[in-house]
Write a structure and sequence with these properties.
alpha+beta, Beta-Lactamase, five-stranded mixed β-sheet, 11 helices, disordered C terminus, binds adenosine-5'-diphosphate, binds magnesium ion
């Protein structure tokens, strides 16, 4: 009965003698041996019976016989010791059996013969479950890493957006300040004009007195001459006109800048109207040259006026962003040339600069939002993407070509009659640098 029980156990049990010949195999082993071997396995060397792993088995058996100590081999280190099949619990497919094997030293009580007992356990279920879990955890790890990358990207995008938001509010602030400055400029300008007239009247009076000096008594003549000299009249007369002219010029410049600041605030509510591109270019040059004074600015307009139907805010914004890039690309000496070409159906504006140029690898990316090569605080990487959106809104085209260390040309073409949307904030996808 006991032998029957051992025979039927769902684990493999085999006994091997000190010459490595098989003494006993239970059904678990026998069922998995080729038919012709089942009846004649006894006295067969274990190495012959299980050829693939023969050497390994022999080494293990030897160590058990010598050390009289059990030996264990785990499926993860040595998965398939015996060439048996098993069906996978998850897929049901037939595969190699994953096995745990233990070899124990035993002794025949009657003969005293030393033997080794091999226990073999089919652990395919655990192994394939473990493998599936491992795959899952690897996939999870990958996903986790991807998520971390995404979070990092989002963090950067968020801080850039905050920066952009700050810029936008700075723009609004500038427009507000410009509006406020307008008032005092108005009265300072008016007062300066009056002052100029008053000064000329005073000078005329003084000059009149000077020419009439000979008609005064000697005493009075002397007193008046001293008065003129002690107050440095000649110097005052020369300087006063110059001072007033200089102040008027300065004030005109301040007026121009304020006017342009107002023009370039985000005017989104204006809707479509006639925009004179030449006037816009003039305004732009005044505005930009006040901030970036090193380049020389040239404007070439075919006609006095070149008009398109468009949304002035976004159009000016687009041209300004391109102009700022051109100005920023010029370190010391250089020039920026604007050319306005008036075609029958459209207007083309070329903005050429002799600046640092754009490397080929960056050229494809310049229209991408947040792409910038400028140090933090200087560039948001939004200039060209905003320009692209604005020009696209006008069914126009914007393209850029550049040569490193030579310069850059941005070409913008706008149809004269477009159905430009009233809003400048619609999103559009920016795909490549050669928007043709
Ligand atoms: N005229 C130009 N000359 C050289 N590089 C330019 C020029 N215009 C654009 N670029 C490059 O394109 C990038 C993106 O421009 P933009 O979208 O305006 O963002 P930002 O100016 O804030 O960096 C710039 O950082 C710069 O590297
Ligand atoms: Mg820019």
């Amino acid at each position: 009965m006991f032998e029957q029980l051992v025979g039927k156990l769902p684990v493999g049990i085999g006994i091997v003698d000190e010459d490595f010949n098989v003494v006993y195999l239970n059904d678990f082993f026998l069922d998995r041996l080729p038919h012709n071997m089942r009846s004649c396995y006894k006295e067969t060397p274990v190495v012959e019976l299980f050829q693939g792993q023969g050497k390994f088995l022999k080494r293990r058996l030897k160590s058990v016989f010598v050390l009289q100590h059990p030996s264990f081999s785990y499926w993860e280190q040595r998965p398939h010791i015996f060439p048996f099949k098993s069906s996978r619990p998850i897929t049901g497919e037939e595969t190699q059996m994953y096995q745990n094997m233990e070899i124990l030293p035993i002794k025949d009580k009657t003969t005293g013969q030393r033997l080794a007992c091999i226990f073999l356990q089919d652990v395919t279920a655990q192994a394939s479950y473990f493998r599936a879990q491992q795959k899952l955890s690897e996939a999870l790890k990958k996903e986790h890493e991807a998520q971390r990358k995404l979070i990092r990207k989002l963090d950067t995008a968020q801080s850039q957006l905050i920066q952009a938001e700050k810029m936008a509010s700075t723009g609004q602030l500038a427009a507000g300040i410009a509006h406020e400055i307008n008032n005092p400029i108005g009265f300072v300008n008016a007062n300066l004009n009056t002052l100029e007239q008053y000064a000329s009247h005073l000078l005329a009076i003084c000059d009149g007195v000077k020419t009439q000096l000979e008609h005064f008594t000697d005493d009075l003549k002397e007193q008046i001459s001293v008065l003129f000299e002690s107050n440095h009249y000649d110097l005052l007369k020369d300087d006063i006109t110059e001072l007033i002219t200089e102040s008027t010029d300065g004030l005109t410049r301040v007026k121009d800048i304020v006017e342009n600041l107002k023009n370039f605030s985000l005017e989104t509510t204006e809707g479509t109207q006639v925009v004179d591109i030449c006037a816009v270019c003039h305004q732009l040059i005044t505005l930009i040259s006040a901030q970036y004074s090193s380049p020389q600015y040239k404007l070439q307009c075919e006609h006095e006026k070149v008009e398109v139907m468009g949304n002035p805010g976004p159009l000016k914004q687009a041209l300004m962003n391109v102009m700022i890039n051109a100005a920023q690309a010029i370190e010391e000496k250089g020039f920026i040339k604007l050319t306005v070409i008036d075609a029958a159906q459209s207007v083309t504006i070329k903005i050429l600069d002799s600046g640092c140029g754009i490397p080929v690898k960056n050229l494809k990316r310049v229209f991408e939002p947040f792409f910038t090569t400028k140090p933090e605080g200087q560039g948001q990487g939004l200039g060209l993407s905003v320009a692209y959106t604005a020009i696209e809104q006008h069914q126009g085209k914007i393209s850029i070509s550049s040569k490193e260390a030579k310069g850059t040309v941005v070409e913008i073409t706008i149809p004269k009659q477009s159905t430009a949307a009233a809003s400048c904030c619609e999103e559009s996808e920016v795909e490549n640098s050669q928007a043709t």
